[in-house]
Amino acid sequence: LGLTGDQRTYHGKETTRFHTVNVAQPVRFSRKCPTGWHHYEGTASCYRVYLNGENYWDAVQTCQRVNGSLATFTADQELRFILAQEWDLEEKTFVRKDQRRFWVGYQYVITNRNHSLEGHWEVAYKGSSEVFLPPDPIFGPAMSEKENVLCAQLQCFHFPTLRHHGLHSWYAENCYEKSSFLCKRSQTCVDIKDNIVDEGYYFTPKGNDPCLSCTCHNGEPEMCVAALCERPQGCQQYRKDPKECCKFTCLDP
Fold first, then answer.
1. Which domain of life is it from (predicted)?
2. Which CATH class is domain 38-186?
3. CA distances from 131 to 52, 74, 75, 112 (A)
């Protein structure tokens, strides 16, 4: 592989001079989720809390617009990860400051209303591979006597001691109540300028090297090529551009 460049402009302008080499080792980079999302390695997924209060069905559509869905969980470890996060929570939430409830991707189907409410949880999206189902719920105060399908809210606790002990509750609530909600999507390739990269495309991963060019495969950078920069000629003091490969600004007077 050969790639050469020669672009030199002095007196505070950019200079470019480079050639490329193959990189055999896989490249690790720091961001596998868009800004505002939290990454969990165990499921190769990204998670984000949306604070704008929406009913369950509107929350479903909001998650779909960002290529995700309301979060469901595959195992206790994933749920513990969610509970331990310090979500970027603002004051404009819909419940007490120390208790946060989020719509998640389960529904409670009522099968018997005789002496006590009987029913079972289902994953809201048919064909889902998730195996974790919540325990018996607390029934929310806005629950209607007519509704036979209720929607799941996961209650997290804001206080660090409670959060790190994994204390939480499951509510079955009227689906038309407004609430914050938790979206989940697959990890993705994010380039050095925080753009999401589609599968199979070249990109420069977020990290310390703006001279990498990799192929996005299953949310990971593969087949990376690096450009090695030559220092700008005729310039003693210079500054590298942190986001552009082999671009320098000459600082000489």
1. Eukaryota
2. alpha beta
3. 29, 5, 7, 24
